[in-house]
Design a protein that fits this description.
21 strands, alpha/beta, about 35% helix, 14 helices, homodimer
Amino acid sequence: MSKSSETRPLGVALAGFGTVGSGLGRLLVENADIIRRRTGRDVAVRAVLVRDAHKAREVPLPPGAVLTTDPARLVNDPGIDVLVELMGGIDAARGIISAALEHGKHVVTANKALLAEDGLALFRLARRKRRILRYEASVAGAIPVVQALKESLVGNRIESLMGILNGTSNYILSEMTSSGVEFGEALRQAQELGFAEADPTLDIDGHDAAHKLVLLIRLAWGVDYPYAALAVRGIRGMAALDIRFAREFGYRIKLIGQARLAAGGTGAAGDAPLRLEAGVFPALVHHTFLLARVGGAYNALRVDANAAGPLFFHGRGAGSLPTAGAVLADLMAVAREERPNNTGFAESELERAAIVPPEDWRSPYYVRVMVEDTPGVLRDISGCMAAEGISVAQMIQKAGDGTSGVPLVFMTHETTARAMSGALGRAADAGLLREPAVYYRVL
Amino acid sequence: MSKSSETRPLGVALAGFGTVGSGLGRLLVENADIIRRRTGRDVAVRAVLVRDAHKAREVPLPPGAVLTTDPARLVNDPGIDVLVELMGGIDAARGIISAALEHGKHVVTANKALLAEDGLALFRLARRKRRILRYEASVAGAIPVVQALKESLVGNRIESLMGILNGTSNYILSEMTSSGVEFGEALRQAQELGFAEADPTLDIDGHDAAHKLVLLIRLAWGVDYPYAALAVRGIRGMAALDIRFAREFGYRIKLIGQARLAAGGTGAAGDAPLRLEAGVFPALVHHTFLLARVGGAYNALRVDANAAGPLFFHGRGAGSLPTAGAVLADLMAVAREERPNNTGFAESELERAAIVPPEDWRSPYYVRVMVEDTPGVLRDISGCMAAEGISVAQMIQKAGDGTSGVPLVFMTHETTARAMSGALGRAADAGLLREPAVYYRVL
């Protein structure tokens, strides 16, 4: 893109306007100021491709966008710089992505199935046409794992990837673990709450996690691990009994996507060529591992790398706004078109922040005071708190050791640092404190 | 950089050759193949600047590098494209970074103190000279938080940052928590083990975490929060007593760097201009939070953002190779010079991965079999395992409910899936199993 083109908005065509597409439309409005500050440009949706132009829609189209059912309308429009593909499925999505690249458009997609099963041809086409093809939202939703592997960890030899990549399965296993219900009941609950599809096959049989794992393997090692060659086992029919037994050993059961270098196949100088062990399967994870702590519909990825050591990423793996935020980051990368981007902001100079004085910080507090063990001391200290409007949530009183008095420990509701130091000042002035009070914020 | 320049190595000057510099030297050799595959270029260290050229060094210089004590030697060499500043400190580092930018070199640095206290002038200079100034290693070591805020989360309005940004303090607090020792003793142990400096002021009084927080605030909100204006409180002299009391309420005490939008100051359209509440302080963190689980010398960052929701990043915050890996990623970003980078590899076509067949996967296993409650059944099942070379680490036998037999649950040492299915096949053939066996890998 030439310099002058940067002042005009980035023209976007949206293929698909479901959960993620409408989330993107919302973010483009709500975060318009941030987009402009970060990239120096606006992002304008010119056209939205849908199957049925007459269907009633709850979410308004992005301002200025036209609705169309004709893919050719998108790829022939010279005002469109990027196609965002959010239709899902394989054939139609491949068709429109290919056509967009052929017509010199960049592409942003969240389509893990297409990229896993048929991505190599699309990467080849993008390379030939020198176009950008980005897909952060296709793996682990809001968690920037594509970027981490593609850019942040490039100086590392990746040793293994281990992830919770399917939120539906993780939700079901979390429910089976916390409430002891059997698989069928947990699946039914997940379907009622919208965490599982009416046909949950892709999720609970491991295929969705497997699609994501194929993409991660490409990013980590730069090799193609054919989706069809991946060993995949899901969680369908798992027994609550085994979750209970696993707990007795100190483990949780999680659906894991894992890929790691096989012994004697690291590809390093002097070793055998790179060989991978990869698959999706339910596994026991020791409760002290961060991966065991991933609950509900969250996703997480652990990466082990020869320089970084172990890294752990955790966040929302799906949902309208989390996924749309990842799509938007890809769009903004295209809008920036990769020039020095040192601060992450396009403005010439950083403004000074407006600062909240520490005494106005709001927070619950932990407070320990050492007092005489006399009648009324608790009333007096509490009075100091109340005089500053501080409300106590929990309190512990301990027997003292006779030298420095009795410890009183309070957990307060949210208050300000000013109120807290005011209350403790009152207590000190009243001669109630045997030692200076100790207090910490509670997160 | 013109196209032809990409085939020649990226010329690097290294200022400082201590822990991180020598780690970088090691990675440039060990991961040379990866660097070439990822960027299409080699990275060559041309010169290393040190204070004393005659000091004995344990680590060899990078191949082809000359040792020098003259900063001018670095910035005047047309074969040097990038200066990597790893000297630390303020004045000399600022001098050489400024000179390098003035002479048209890109800069990579890990110097959080310099960037926090005096970074705006350097960013201004880099912008004027159109040079890249990267600093991933300056915050949270191996964890790619700079990249996440600068590129992955750009479509989000950041609501808050909350991090464990100083490994020394976290190590001391972890020791006080796990072994109940007082602060002075924990500090002494940390110093003996090399987790704390002889003069620990920067770490335990919160200044190091504060430097990092200033950088994170700039990246998240694009504003300058002057280091001198930041409220900073460290962990010096913290009482083991308070750590114990906090535990009774279900909390851990952590040194936290936090910045968040003040109420009525989000900067969003229709709201008051952006106002920040920011500081470094010890705080109670509920044990169910992932931040409470960050142990030893690890770092972590939680980001809350309006599209992504909560994100959590965890990894090594310091150390030779973890930090050097982050420096190397910055160098490789310069080497790539930001063109379409879809797969993260420069090669034209991905090779097919060499694949370990699932039956050869090595792992410990959890196995549950339902058997008749008869004498010798445990011996028989164990015999099937032993015949396949499987060694049992733990075993539980439960009373059965009389219908489907008695459950025997094994945790094995590492073995292969082939051996496991072999053993279970033997058990089935011998008529020992009342139901198909259930087995899962143990991570």
